[in-house]
Specification:
Layout: E1 2-5, H1 12-42, H2 48-70, H3 78-104, H4 109-116, H5 119-126, H6 128-131, H7 135-153, H8 163-186, H9 192-215, H10 223-250, H11 253-257, H12 263-275, H13 281-298, E2 306-311
Antiparallel strand pairs: 1-2
Length: 313
């Protein structure tokens, strides 16, 4: 008696194959969540456009050195270059400028985090046909959003939500969603090292004139500002963004972006650890609800499918 069995994720080999993606996912969540606090610190020493110019300028220096050492593959043809540039403008320049400027205009971190946490839902709606989510996953997306609302809801200051700040964070939401999907669609084969350098150069070129023209490029130099820039560039803009793109290439966009629900939770725990800000009971309940929602979206049934039935020999 013999059978041919298709390998699945249920075997030991499948678990080993999934291990790198699991590590990338947790790294992305931890870095993205801690970025809220780092950005809040950085904006104390420089206005949004100026702070981002410093951030991307330092990123250009880091990725230039990396490119010289590693000799990455560069995009070929004008179309490939234009796709990389468009994705970079959306994901880096427009997205971060919108979210930073919203906070600069007085929008609370709670509202900012809550609005940006709707990205998984927006992504799922845009890719409803291609990703073919099952009802369980749609339920998980809704539950995850509810959980994020519970985590940050008690911190929301409605009075600080001006029309300008809400417009800025809405632009950030549309830009990060569109940029992520655009890069997944049109830049799937690009070398992430060269693409990152191109995108940082373009973002710097766009933001520097705004920093000079509107903010006078005023910087209050401080050791904490330097530490935050280094942390956000190397840990966030380079490594975490590359981790996100790698995960997007390995799985469905809706499943991967559902990880963004977990980033406000990281911020809550870091505030507790670093600043002794004890989370409220509502936040604790929200954390549990969010984790349940993410689990519903990302969980896959472990099955072994027999492609050829048992055949007597």
């Amino acid at each position: 008696m013999s059978s041919i069995v298709e390998p699945t994720a249920s075997g030991a080999g499948g678990r080993v194959a999934r291990l790198p993606d699991a590590m990338l996912a947790w790294y992305f969540v931890l870095m993205w969540g801690s970025g809220y606090l780092a950005t809040k610190t950085g904006l104390r020493f420089a206005a949004p456009f100026t702070f981002l110019t410093l951030r991307f300028g330092f990123g250009v220096l880091c990725l230039s050195a990396w490119a010289l050492w590693s000799k990455p593959r560069w995009p070929t043809g004008r179309r490939a270059w234009s796709h990389v540039v468009v994705a970079g403008l959306l994901m880096h320049a427009v997205n971060l400028a919108g979210s930073h400027y919203a906070q600069y205009l007085g929008l609370s971190a709670g509202i900012t985090a809550l609005i940006l946490a709707t990205q998984p839902l927006l992504t799922a709606l845009l890719l409803a046909r291609s990703d073919r989510l099952v009802p369980r996953q749609w339920t998980g997306i809704a539950i995850g959003l509810l959980g994020v609302g519970l985590v940050v809801g008690h911190r929301i200051d409605i009075d600080a939500a001006s029309s300008g700040s809400l417009l800025a964070v809405a632009v950030a939401l549309v830009s990060i969603t569109g940029g992520t999907l655009y890069q997944r669609r049109w830049c799937a084969d690009v070398d992430l090292r060269s693409a990152g350098l191109i995108q940082f150069v373009v973002a710097t070129a766009v933001l520097a004139p705004l920093a000079i023209g509107f903010e006078g490029f005023v910087v209050r130099w401080d050791r904490r500002l330097v530490e935050v820039v280094v942390f956000l560039v190397i840990g966030g803009s380079i490594l975490a963004v590359n981790a996100l793109h790698t995960l997007m290439r390995h799985g469905s966009a809706s499943r991967v972006t559902s990880l963004l629900y977990l980033t406000p939770i990281v911020a809550v725990f870091l505030e507790w650890a670093l600043f002794d800000v004890v989370p409220a009971l509502q936040s604790i309940v929200g954390i549990a609800v969010t984790c349940a929602g993410v689990a519903l979206v990302t969980w896959r049934r472990r099955t072994t499918r027999t492609t050829v039935a048992d055949v007597d020999t």
